[in-house]
From TrEMBL:
E.C. number: 3.2.1.23
Taxonomic superkingdom: Bacteria
Species this protein is from: Bifidobacterium saimiriisciurei
InterPro entries xrefs: B-gal_small/dom_5 (IPR004199), Bact_Beta-galactosidase (IPR050347), Beta-gal/glucu_dom_sf (IPR036156), Gal_mutarotase_sf_dom (IPR011013), Galactose-bd-like_sf (IPR008979), GH (IPR017853), GH-type_carb-bd (IPR014718), Glyco_hydro_2 (IPR006101)
Transcription listed as a keyword: no
Location of region: Disordered: 445-464
Membrane-spanning ranges: none
Keyword Endoplasmic reticulum (UniProt): no
Name listed for the protein in its UniProt record: Beta-galactosidase
PROSITE patterns linked: GLYCOSYL_HYDROL_F2_1
Enzyme class, broadest EC rank: hydrolase
Pfam families: Bgal_small_N, Glyco_hydro_2, Glyco_hydro_2_C, Glyco_hydro_2_N, LacZ_4
Similarity remark: Belongs to the glycosyl hydrolase 2 family.
Length: 1069
C-alpha cells in the first residue's frame, strides 16, 4: 500500500450548511428552532473499534465504559411544572436529592417503563386534535423526563483523566431532544433520535464519583421530522457510554474496499482523520483475511499525516469478494505508534474495522454487484421488541438475521432510520444487503385524510430553515456506517414529499460517497425533483403499474421500497411481483414489513395481551395498522413467511418423474454446499428418498436424472390408481451460523395420478372417494328423522354407528359411532369468512355484505328423502338469505357401512359480488381437536398464497391452526386438501375425503367464523367449548397489494356467477 491523496470525498461544500452550535448554557428556544439541532456535539464519525494495545481477535473495547443500567427518572409536563432548562435546573446539581425519582432501565423507553402511555399513530401527529401547532412549534403540553445517573469512573476512564486525555460521552439513541449536564455543568444539546450524539466532557468529568443529568423532551421541532409509522416511544433507548481516547486517536476511519470482477483483485482507499497527530511517530496499516493472515502491510511515518489526515491507497491483489451469498470479510487495522525514541511499548492506538471487497454501482442503467445485476429479496424492518419497544437487544438482532437467512431474504431497508451499529456488523457477517435510511419522515405535514396531497404545508420541502438539520441527519448516518459492506444504498428518508432540501441531501451524499446510489421514493410525488433519487422507487405500485414502467424504456433501475403490505392475514399474490424479475430493470422489492409492532399489556386479571393503537387510551391512534409483519410481535414466525421463503429462493427446482431441472439464480455461488434430497410420496406419504450432489454454477440451469422408483408398483399394490408426488428439496450440506445442516431452503414438486398400468394423469388428481357399501344396517324411516344404524357386523370396524337426517332441522343431526357423537348442530352453509385486515381495508365487508348472513340465515325451501338397499339419502334445498335467494343444495347419502357422501352445490348467481367462500361449517365436540390432513402445508395456505405450501400429510391441532393475528380474522385454511382426519386423543373421530376429482379447502379451529369476526383482540375470543370444522369448495385469496383499498386480484376471487361444489365422503374412525 502507498500513502497518497485519497479519492474518498469529504463533503466540505454542502457540509458547511451543517452548523453545530456552541453554548455554555442551555436555551429552551432550541426546542422550537429547526436551525438548532445540535449544540456542542462532536462531528459524526465511523463506528470502528480502537484499542490502546494490540487486541486479541474479537476482543471487546476496554476504552469504552458503559453507563447502561438503572437510572433515576422523573417525568413532568414542562408547561405545567414550569420547567426551564435555561434556569440552572436543580435536578442537574450534583447534590440534588433524587430519592423521589423512580427507577428506569437504560436502554429503555419511558412508555415501556410505565412513565408515559404508549401512542401509536401512522401519518397523523400524536397531538392532532388536542393542539394545533404549526411547524416548527411543538405542543404546549410537552413531557420532559429528568434522568439522573451517578457513576464511578472505570480504570480506563480514570487513566485518561489523569493523563489529560480526551473523554467523550455518547448517547447512541435518545428521543426526541436531550439537554445534558455533567456534574452540574451544561454539556450540550442534541436531536436526531437514531444516530449517536457525542460530547467532549474532558473538562467536566472527575476521577471517582460523577453525576450525569439529562432532560429528555417528548417533543421538539425534530418531532416534525420523525413522523414514522411506529409507536411514539421516547427516552434513552440506546446505550450511553464514556469513551477514553488514547493520546493520538483515529476519530474517523473511512475505507473504500473496491473489487474488480474482471481481474478478481481488490484495492483499498483509506482516509483516517487523526486527533493529536503530532503525537504519532510512525504507524502500520494492515489487512487481515478471515483467518487472521496479513495480506497487505504498509508502514507510514508522521510525515504521511497531512493536516491531521492519513491517506492510503493501493491495490491488494487477489481477494475473495463480499456478497450476501458469500460474505467474505477482511479486517483493516491501523496502528499508531509513538515517537521512535520511546523505549516503552510505543503503541498508542490500534484502530480496526471490518471491510468487504465489493463494487456496487449503477452500470448500464442497472444496479450491479461485482458486475452482476442484483435483485433485492427484501423486507422493511423496524427495530422492535414487544416488551422493550425499539430498545432491541443483540439477542433480538441475532434472531432476526438468522430468520432472514433461513427464509431466503437477502436485503433489509432500515425503515425509517439508522439502526444500531451492531445490526450492520451482523449484516456484514451473515450477508444481508442494506438500504440505510435517514431518520426523516414528515408524512403528516403533506398528506391529508383521503390521501390528499398538500405540498404547501410540507416539511422540509424547499424551506431553507430545515436544510441544515436534514443534511446533518444524512451526514451522521453516512459517516457512521460508511465502512459496512452490507450498506449498498443510501436512502434520504421516507414519505416526506420532495423539494430542494432533498436535492441538497442527494448532492451531499454524492460528495461524501461517490459510489453508492441514492434512494428516495418521495420524488414520485413531484417529478420536478426526480434527480434527487438515482433509483425509480415506488410504494405499493400494483404489478401492472410496475410492468408499464419496465416495458417503456425505463431510465432508472426500479425497486418497490414497500410492497406486499403484510397486515394480518396477507401476502397473497406475491408471485405477481416476483414474476417481474424477468425484466432487467426490475431489481426487487421490500415487503412491508418485518415484525408486528405490538406491545405487551398486563390486564387486571394478571394475564397479558398484545396491543395496538388505542389500547393504552391513546387518542388519536391508528388501531392495528402497526401489525404488518411476516413475524409476529413475540418473534414467532407467521404463516406468511412460508410463502416468502419459497418465492424468494434463489434456486428454482422443477422435478418430473425421471429427473429434475434446477436453475441456480445465485449470482456468485454454485450449489456445491447443498444436498438435494429426492423423495417419492405416494398419496402424501414418503415411500422413497435419496440424496444427490447436483452442482449447478451460478446463473445456470441444469437437468439431472433421478432414479425415482416405478410408481406403477405402488398403484398395483394399492389395487388401483395412486397419487404420486416427485419432490426434490435443497438442503444445507453443512451447518451455518444461521441454520443446522439439513435445513431445507426450498423445494420443487410434481404430482400425478398413476394407474396400475403405469399411465399417469396430467392433473395430478387421484380419486380418493369412499368405497362401495357392503355392511349390514337398519334403516329407520321415522316421522321426524330418517336414520340408518349399524349392526356391528359391517365394514365399519365391527362397531355400531348411527346417521340421522332430520326432516325439520335442515341437515344431518347425528353422526355417531360407539356412542361418540360428532354433530353438535347440523353443518351450516358458509358464504362468508371472518374479514381479514385487507378485507376491511378494501371495503369487502360493505361490498360483500349480502354474503355475511346468506348462508348463516339460509332457510330450507325444499327437502327430499330416499331409502334403498344401500342406505339412505336426504337432499336439502336452501334459499340463501340474499337478494337473489339463490338455491343451494346440500345432499347427504349414508350407506350401510356408516359412510356419508356429502355434497354442497352452489349453482351460480347473477348480479352478485364475488363470493368470499362457499362450503359448510361444522360444530364438533371440543375433544375433537386433532387435525391430520393430506394437502398443502404445513402452514395455512390460500388461493393466492399457496406456492410455499408443500403437498404432504401433516398433523396439527385446532389451537395451533389459529394464527395469532393482532386482530382475529380469517385463519387456518388449507388448500388442495385430498383428505383429513379429525380425532380426539384416542384417535376416534372421522375422516373426510374428496369424493370426486376436485380437492377442497379445510380448517379446524377452536372458534367459529362469527367468533373470529366479532373479536378485536386475541384475548376477546371465548374459551374453546367446541371445535369448528370448515369444509369449503373454495375460498377467495387474501390479497396483499395494500391494506387500504387494493382488492384481491381477479384471478384469485370467486366469481358468483360460476357454480361451486363441495363433494366429500365421511367415514367414522
Amino acid at each position: 500500500m502507498s500513502t497518497t491523496e485519497s479519492t474518498t470525498k469529504s463533503g466540505t461544500e454542502l457540509q458547511q450548511h451543517i452548523v453545530i452550535g456552541k453554548a455554555a448554557e442551555a436555551s429552551a428556544d432550541w426546542l422550537t428552532d429547526p436551525q438548532v439541532f445540535a449544540v456542542n456535539r462532536m462531528p459524526a464519525h465511523s463506528d470502528h473499534r480502537f484499542f490502546d494495545h494490540a487486541p486479541l481477535p474479537n476482543e471487546s473495547m476496554t476504552l469504552k465504559q458503559s453507563l447502561d443500567g438503572e437510572w433515576h427518572v422523573n417525568v413532568i409536563d414542562a408547561a405545567t411544572e414550569r420547567f426551564d432548562v435555561a434556569d440552572s435546573p436543580a435536578f442537574a446539581a450534583v447534590d440534588f436529592n433524587d430519592e423521589a425519582f423512580g427507577a428506569i432501565a437504560v436502554p429503555g423507553h419511558l412508555e415501556t417503563a410505565g412513565y408515559l402511555p404508549p401512542k401509536y399513530v401512522n401519518i397523523q401527529y400524536p397531538w392532532d386534535g388536542h393542539e394545533n401547532p404549526t411547524a416548527p412549534a411543538v405542543p404546549e403540553h410537552n413531557h420532559v423526563a429528568l434522568y439522573r445517573r451517578e457513576f464511578m469512573t472505570g480504570p480506563e476512564t480514570a487513566a485518561a483523566i489523569r493523563g489529560h486525555r480526551t473523554v467523550t460521552l455518547t448517547f447512541q439513541g435518545a428521543q426526541t431532544a436531550i439537554y445534558v449536564w455533567l456534574n452540574g455543568t451544561f454539556v450540550g444539546y442534541a436531536e436526531d433520535s437514531f444516530t449517536p450524539s457525542e460530547f467532549d466532557v474532558s473538562d467536566m468529568i472527575r476521577e471517582g464519583r460523577n453525576v450525569l443529568a439529562v432532560a429528555c423532551y417528548e417533543y421538539a421541532s425534530a418531532s416534525w421530522l420523525e413522523d414514522q409509522d411506529y409507536w411514539r416511544l421516547h427516552g434513552l433507548f440506546r446505550s450511553v457510554e464514556l469513551t477514553a481516547w488514547p493520546e493520538a486517536h483515529v476519530m474517523d476511519l473511512r475505507a473504500v474496499a473496491d473489487y474488480d470482477h474482471t481481474t478478481g483483485t481488490g484495492s483499498i482507499d483509506v482516509a483516517a482523520r487523526i486527533a493529536n497527530a503530532a503525537a504519532v511517530g510512525d504507524g502500520l496499516a494492515e489487512i487481515f483475511d478471515g483467518n487472521g493472515t496479513v495480506i497487505r502491510r504498509q508502514e507510514f511515518t508522521a510525515a504521511d499525516i497531512i493536516d491531521g489526515t492519513l491517506h492510503i491507497r493501493d491495490g491488494v491483489g487477489k481477494v475473495a469478494p463480499w456478497s450476501a451469498e458469500d460474505p467474505r470479510l477482511y479486517t483493516l487495522s491501523l496502528t499508531l505508534n509513538g515517537p521512535l525514541n520511546d523505549t516503552v511499548d510505543d503503541i498508542i492506538e490500534v484502530s480496526r474495522t471490518r471491510i468487504g471487497f465489493r463494487r456496487f454501482a449503477i452500470e448500464d442503467g442497472l444496479m450491479k454487484l461485482n458486475g452482476k445485476r442484483i435483485v433485492f429479496k427484501g423486507v422493511d424492518r423496524h427495530e422492535f421488541d414487544a416488551r422493550r419497544g425499539r430498545a432491541v437487544t443483540e439477542e433480538d438482532m441475532l434472531w432476526d438475521v438468522r430468520f432472514l437467512k433461513r427464509h431466503n431474504l437477502n436485503a433489509v431497508r432500515t425503515s425509517h432510520y439508522p439502526n444500531q451499529s451492531r445490526w450492520y456488523e451482523l449484516c456484514d457477517e451473515y450477508g444481508i444487503y442494506l438500504i440505510d435510511e435517514t431518520n426523516i419522515e414528515t408524512h403528516g405535514t403533506w398528506s391529508a385524510p383521503g390521501d390528499q396531497v398538500t405540498p404547501e404545508t410540507n416539511v422540509p420541502g424547499s424551506k431553507p430553515e430545515w436544510e441544515g438539520a436534514c443534511l446533518d441527519r444524512v451526514n451522521s448516518m453516512i459517516r457512521r456506517d460508511f465502512n459496512h459492506p452490507s450498506v449498498v444504498i443510501w436512502s434520504l428518508g421516507n414519505e416526506s414529499y420532495a423539494g430542494e432540501v432533498f436535492q441538497a441531501m442527494h448532492d451531499l451524499v454524492h460528495e461524501l460517497d461517490g459510489v453508492r446510489p441514492v434512494h428516495y421514493e418521495g420524488v414520485y410525488w413531484n417529478r420536478e425533483f426526480d434527480a434527487a433519487s438515482d433509483i425509480e422507487s415506488r410504494m405499493y405500485a400494483k404489478p401492472a403499474e410496475i410492468e408499464e414502467y419496465l416495458a417503456n424504456d425505463p431510465k432508472k433501475p426500479y425497486i418497490s421500497c414497500e410492497y406486499m403490505h403484510a397486515m394480518g392475514n396477507s401476502v397473497g399474490g406475491m408471485q405477481l411481483y416476483t414474476d417481474l424479475e424477468r425484466y432487467p430493470h426490475y431489481q426487487g422489492g421490500f415487503i412491508w414489513d418485518y415484525i408486528d409492532q405490538a406491545l405487551w399489556q398486563r390486564l387486571g386479571d394478571g394475564t397479558e395481551r398484545l396491543t395496538y393503537g388505542g389500547d393504552w387510551d391513546d387518542r388519536p391512534h391508528d388501531y392495528e395498522f402497526s401489525g404488518d409483519g411476516i413475524v409476529f410481535a413475540d418473534r414467532t414466525v407467521s404463516p406468511k413467511a412460508q410463502e416468502v421463503r419459497q418465492l424468494y429462493a434463489n434456486v428454482k427446482i422443477v422435478p418430473d418423474d425421471s429427473g429434475v431441472t434446477i436453475t441456480n439464480g445465485n449470482l456468485f455461488i454454485d450449489t456445491s454446499d447443498s444436498v438435494f434430497t429426492a423423495r417419492l410420496l405416494v398419496d402424501g406419504v414418503e415411500r422413497w428418498s435419496a440424496d444427490y450432489d447436483f452442482v449447478v454454477p451460478a446463473g445456470e440451469t441444469r437437468r439431472f436424472d433421478v432414479a425415482f422408483p416405478d410408481a406403477a408398483e405402488y398403484a398395483n399394490a394399492a389395487g388401483g390408481s395412486v397419487e404420486v408426488t416427485y419432490e426434490v428439496d435443497q438442503r444445507l450440506r453443512h451447518a451455518t451460523p444461521w441454520a443446522d445442516a439439513g435445513y431445507e431452503l426450498t423445494f420443487g414438486q410434481h404430482t400425478a395420478a398413476v394407474a396400475s398400468d403405469g399411465t399417469t394423469g396430467g392433473d395430478g388428481i387421484a380419486d380418493a372417494g369412499a368405497t362401495k357399501a357392503g355392511g349390514k344396517a337398519v334403516v329407520v324411516d321415522g316421522r321426524w328423522n330418517l336414520g340408518i344404524h349399524g349392526t356391528g357386523t359391517g365394514a365399519a370396524g365391527g362397531a355400531d354407528f348411527e346417521v340421522l337426517l332430520s326432516r325439520t332441522q335442515g341437515g344431518m343431526v347425528s353422526l355417531r359411532r360407539g356412542g361418540r357423537e360428532m354433530v353438535i348442530r347440523r353443518p351450516d352453509i358458509v358464504t362468508f369468512r371472518p374479514l381479514t385486515d385487507n378485507d376491511r381495508g378494501n371495503g369487502s365487508g360493505f361490498d360483500r355484505a349480502q354474503w355475511f348472513g346468506a348462508g348463516r340465515y339460509a332457510r330450507v325451501a325444499d327437502t327430499r328423502f330416499e331409502t334403498s338397499e344401500h342406505g339412505i339419502a336426504a337432499e336439502y334445498a336452501y334459499e340463501l338469505a340474499e337478494p337473489n335467494r339463490t338455491r343451494v343444495t346440500v345432499r347427504y347419502e349414508a350407506d350401510a357401512n356408516g359412510r356419508v357422501h356429502l355434497t354442497a352445490s352452489y349453482p351460480g348467481g347473477v348480479d352478485a359480488p364475488t363470493l368470499p367462500a362457499f362450503g359448510l361449517e361444522w360444530m364438533l365436540p371440543a375433544q375433537y381437536t386433532n387435525l391430520r390432513f393430506y394437502g398443502l402445508g404445513p402452514d395455512e395456505t390460500y388461493l393466492d398464497r399457496k406456492i410455499g405450501g408443500k403437498l404432504g400429510v401433516y398433523e396439527t391441532t385446532a389451537p395451533d391452526s389459529a394464527a395469532p393475528y393482532l386482530v382475529p380474522q380469517e385463519t387456518g385454511n388449507h388448500e388442495d386438501v385430498r383428505w383429513l382426519e379429525v380425532t380426539d386423543e384416542y384417535g376416534h373421530g372421522m375422516k373426510v375425503s374428496r369424493s370426486g376429482s376436485d380437492t377442497f379447502c379445510a380448517s379446524l379451529l377452536p372458534y367459529s367464523t362469527l367468533m373470529l369476526e366479532e373479536a378485536r383482540h386475541q384475548d376477546e375470543l371465548p374459551a374453546p367449548r367446541h371445535t369448528f370444522l370448515r369444509l369449503l369448495a373454495a375460498q377467495m385469496g387474501v390479497g396483499g397489494d395494500d391494506s387500504w383499498g387494493a382488492p384481491v386480484h381477479d384471478r384469485f376471487q370467486l366469481d358468483a356467477a360460476k357454480p361451486l361444489t363441495l363433494d366429500v365422503a365421511i367415514e367414522l374412525l
